[in-house]
Specification:
Blueprint: H1 2-86
Protein name: BnaA03g47390D protein
Organism: Brassica napus (Rape)
Keywords: Membrane, Transmembrane, Transmembrane helix
Length: about 90
């Protein structure tokens, strides 16, 4: 009878230890998830900044190309006007 009580007590102690291990691993997993979420957010911010920089460069090069195109068109129109004026 004493042995059965001792085994029952021992079983309760072991169950408590297993439960603590499960809780501890859950807490560790949650902490890892939080850290990973933070890393993902930081990388997301970096990617957004890079995209904004690339778009700004592309936009400025498009505007620069547009200015060149307009300039060439103006020169061509002036030359056409000069040629027509001398005929």
């Amino acid at each position: 009878m004493e042995e059965m009580k001792a085994r029952a007590n021992h079983l309760l102690v072991l169950e408590a230890k297993v439960e603590n291990l499960n809780l501890m691993s859950d807490l560790e997993t949650e902490e890892k998830v939080r850290r990973l979420e933070k890393q993902v957010q930081e990388k997301d911010v970096r990617v957004e900044k890079l995209v904004e920089e690339i778009l700004a460069k592309n936009k400025s090069s498009v505007i620069g190309g547009l200015e060149v195109l307009v300039g060439v068109m103006v020169i061509v129109l002036v030359l056409i006007g000069v040629v027509i004026a001398y005929k």
